[in-house]
TrEMBL record:
Transmembrane segments: none annotated. It comes from Plantactinospora mayteni. Residues 1-194 form the Metallo-beta-lactamase domain. This is Metallo-beta-lactamase domain-containing protein. Pfam families: Lactamase_B (PF00753). It comes from the Bacteria. SMART domains: Lactamase_B (SM00849).
Length: 209
């Protein structure tokens, strides 16, 4: 997750992996004196990026159009700890993901999966200047990169990751070609969702090997 804030309101990038996670981020925002969230951006539709959305009040949820129907389908599933166990019994490859979901969710009351309320196809710039760009890729068809020009930061989500574990083949790996294409002299920092941020110089050095 990331928060981009100015006097017009905060842009929250990804919703958190659960309502409890979202509420913890909200508490941290209040403690830091940041303005309330006005926009919630999905970098893609996977659970650990969207399951906290139902705990974000009064926001416009923005996502790439390919994720909307995927999330509508996910919202119809009878999510519960029992359902997670049943799904893993039927398909053991779901185990790592579904066990993580069970650990993240201690309470299913009022939980719902929310598709984006505003979608875009290729690019969209929010009123605060944050730019969204659809890049797709093997990890998720709706993968979106978030550019923050004022801070010279690019938020990558999981766009260059291989497919999720239960869909991954033996030859699937990081999409380094995508990562190279995303490097831009106008941006100094690159942050993916599950790793440490890197500078432009560090990213180029890593990719040159």
């Amino acid at each position: 997750m990331a928060v981009v804030a100015d006097e017009r309101g905060s842009v929250v990038v990804d919703a958190g992996h659960s309502p409890a996670h979202a509420r913890a981020i909200q508490a941290a925002m209040r403690a830091a004196g940041l303005p309330p969230a006005r926009w919630l951006v999905y970098t893609h539709h996977h659970w650990d990026h969207v399951w906290g959305a139902c705990a974000w009040p009064d926001v416009e949820i923005v996502g790439q159009v390919a994720g909307r129907e995927l999330l509508r389908q996910e919202a119809t599933r009878p999510w519960s700890h029992r359902y997670l166990r049943e799904q893993v019994r039927e398909n053991p490859r779901l185990g790592p993901s579904f066990r993580a979901r069970a650990l993240a969710m201690d309470d299913w009351a009022d939980f719902t999966i929310l598709p984006p309320t505003r979608t875009f196809t290729d690019e969209l710039t929010l009123p605060v200047g944050v730019r969204l760009r659809h890049v797709g890729g093997a990890h998720a068809p709706d993968s979106t990169v978030v550019y923050v020009p004022d801070a010279r930061v690019v938020l990558l989500g999981d766009c260059f990751y291989p497919p999720p574990a239960h869909l991954r083949g033996p030859d699937d790996g990081l999409d380094l070609a995508m990562m190279r294409d995303l490097l831009d002299d106008d941006y100094e920092w690159y942050a993916d969702s599950h790793g440490e941020p890197t500078t432009l110089a560090q990213a180029r050095q890593l990719l040159s090997g």
